[in-house]
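User: Predict structure, ligand pyridoxal-5'-phosphate.
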Amino acid sequence: MHAVAHVDLDALIWNYHFLRDKSAPAATAAAIKANAYGLGIIGIAPALQAAGCRTFFVAHFSEALTLRLILPDAKTEIIVLHGIQPHDYAEALARHITPTLNHLGDIENWRIFARQQEIFLEACVHLDSGINRLGLPLREQNQLADNHGLLDGIKVRAWMSHFARSEEFDISMTREQRRRFIEILNQLPPAPASLCNSSGIFWGKDYVFDLTRPGIALYGGNPMPMTDNPMHAVLTLKAPILQIRDVVAGDAVGYTSTYCFTKSGRVATLPCGYADGYHRALANRGKVKIGDHLAPVIGNVSMDLLTVDVTDIPEHIAHVGAMATIIGPHRPIDQVAVEAQTNAYEILTSLGPRVERIYSRP
Ligand SMILES: *Cc1c(COP(=O)(O)O)cnc(C)c1O
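Assistant: Predicted complex:
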């Protein structure tokens, strides 16, 4: 009796094709970092590959190595957003893993390595257009524009940049980042360009350039939280009722007694706590679905358990062994995220390692 994450690969593939059609004529890669946003690269990566995805973005080199074991075909591109340290270059080359170069020092190291190998080496080059996080700052972009020789021996797979607030209703910052991106692209050697994450794709064809990099929308999160979610739900997280007890007025529930019954009722306990990804912030705020009924979370969320009020749910529906849906098509991750005062990304990537992932066959 434990929590189970059902991952709907048909929905994942529908989402990929939807984003691919919206991105066209640009190609559509997949952001698959953080173990495919918690859903598990072991199930997600082969399904995306079968759906036609040829390019995968991860954050860490270690993630790239794991992904390469799952997708051994060298024609499947794996790009490391955080870059690769020089002591890993030889292994990266052997495993066909492409670095992102985030500053001039990165570019120089990769250029020296290419010269040693006496071949052209591919790399993504990240140009910061306003997020001020990773990528060449404007000063370094201008140095590169003034001296293309800094790229000798490097075949630019893509010039890339990343939006800071593309999911917001107000497009002004997104538009400005696009303008800065084009301005610098015009001064650099021609190569494919990549600007859009999931939400960027929804601003239309002027934004997609040659390659898009959606993540959250593939996994069912709403790329544009201001509007209805066009994506299909991929994750259904369920847990069985372990125990039910009757309580009377004055009884309290859970650690530090944060919920107190004012009349008699029934409490159901589920094996899903914060170690499984059910945030403590959902204490006395979240809801789970049992049959067609919503049961409010009462009391604190503990490491391994949560408690819900099933007083108003008939006993033939809320009984020991009955499955509660914690996240699912009718309990959307974006809704749970609002209740937890976070976003869908954090809800997905919180899914604990001990939660069993079951992948439906596409
Ligand atoms: C995570 C990430 C993405 C994917 O973003 P989503 O908002 O999940 O679509 C794309 N590009 C970069 C650089 C990222 O770090």
